[in-house]
Automatic annotation (TrEMBL):
The chain crosses the membrane at residues 15-34. The keyword Magnesium does not apply. It comes from Empedobacter brevis NBRC 14943 = ATCC 43319. Keywords: Membrane, Transmembrane, Transmembrane helix. This is LPS export ABC transporter periplasmic protein LptC. One of its GO terms (cellular component) is plasma membrane. One of its GO terms (molecular function) is lipopolysaccharide transmembrane transporter activity. The keyword Membrane applies.
């Protein structure tokens, strides 16, 4: 009888231990599997300017000679980002001086951005470039590479000479920033001639 009791007790201990182990494993699985899944976040990286200038007038000199005069109601410089840039959110008026020229060229836009690495200005909204002779170029978007002294756009552009001749390029142009040399894409235009002028 004592042997039977001992045998039963041993069997109960053997049965109880797996039940406890199974219970602990089940609770562990439930605890770790019930981890609440968070919805994916679409965090947009926000960049803040490292320097802000209000009602700025900046004059750049090269070897004592004025090379550029920049005027803008608001200039924001982003220098702590991977590709530093400067934004002119409220517009830009810029005089640029060519070597050997007395009168400056002129660049104007309602909004502009300068890439510090490439030296390329992007102008948007009423973009105008005027050379020292008075020839002008107008577009809604224009890129000016100040290092290569070139301008280009794929938008419609108007080229108006100081004499009043006008050319329109529906698909943009590539030109030097003094407007001496240019390539127009899908163009048409008007040329004013004197009454007595022969062809």
């Amino acid at each position: 009888m004592d042997k039977q009791k001992l045998y039963r007790k041993a069997n109960e201990n053997v049965l109880i231990t797996p039940i406890y182990i199974f219970g602990l494993i089940s609770i562990s699985i439930l605890l770790f599997s019930c981890k609440k899944e968070l919805p994916p976040t679409n965090k947009k990286k926000v960049e803040f300017p490292s320097r802000t200038l209000i009602n700025a007038n900046i004059i750049n000199r090269d070897s004592g000679r004025i090379s550029m005069n920049v005027r803008s109601p608001l200039i924001e410089e982003y220098t702590t980002v991977d590709s530093p840039y400067t934004v002119f959110r409220k517009g830009l008026d810029l005089d640029f001086y060519q070597k050997g020229q007395i009168k400056p060229g002129y660049f104007q836009a309602d909004w502009a951005k300068l890439s510090d690495a490439t030296g390329i200005y992007e102008g948007r909204g009423n973009v105008i470039i005027v050379n020292e002779k008075g020839d002008s170029l107008k577009s809604e978007q224009l890129f000016w590479n100040k290092k290569n002294k070139t301008v280009y756009t794929s938008k419609e552009v108007y080229l108006i000479s100081s004499e009043g001749d006008s050319l329109t390029a529906k698909n943009g142009l590539q030109a030097t920033d003094d407007l001496e040399s240019y390539t127009l894409f899908n163009n048409q235009g008007f040329k004013y001639v004197e009454d007595n002028q022969k062809f």
